[in-house]
């Protein structure tokens, strides 16, 4: 997967899995975004970002996660930090 900002991606898993744990709170069920697309707008190059859960990117989704009842705390609308390994480049699909 390239590291270019503004590339188009699709979420194919969340935190390495395809489904949420049974006890997942509805506002944190980000697995509901699987299959949705967006654009990479920023990369997390910090040591903490790289070590905590692997490389992450800020994805601005086409769909509004808040409209799906999901918490979205980033200042950029419709954007969530996602692990690179949970994304597929749209060009590769």
Our Rg estimate from Cα atoms comes to 13 Å
Number of helices: 1
What is the H/E string?
Answer: EEHEEE
Read across the widest sheet, the strand sequence of neighbours is 4-3-2-1-5
Protein architecture, described:
It is a single chain. The chain is mostly beta strands. The chain has one domain. The chain contains 1 helix and 5 strands, in the order E-E-H-E-E-E. A 5-stranded antiparallel sheet has the order 4-3-2-1-5. 17% of the residues are buried. The mean pLDDT is 88.
Topology:
Elements: E1 8-11, E2 37-44, H1 47-53, E3 56-61, E4 79-83, E5 87-89
Antiparallel strand pairs: 1-2, 1-5, 2-3, 3-4
Which structural traits does this protein have?
5 strands; single chain; 93 residues; five-stranded antiparallel sheet
Concise synopsis of the structure shown:
The protein has one helix at residues 47-53; strands spanning 8-11, 37-44, 56-61, 79-83, 87-89. The chain is mainly beta and 93 residues long.
């Amino acid at each position: 997967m390239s590291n270019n900002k503004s590339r188009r991606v699709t979420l194919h898993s969340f935190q390495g899995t395809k489904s949420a744990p049974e006890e997942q709170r509805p506002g944190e069920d980000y697995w509901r975004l699987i299959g949705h697309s967006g654009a990479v707008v920023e990369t997390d190059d910090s040591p903490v970002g790289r070590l905590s859960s692997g490389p992450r990117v800020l994805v601005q989704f086409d769909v509004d996660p808040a409209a799906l009842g999901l918490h979205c705390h980033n200042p950029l609308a419709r954007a969530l930090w996602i692990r690179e390994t949970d994304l597929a480049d749209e060009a590769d699909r």
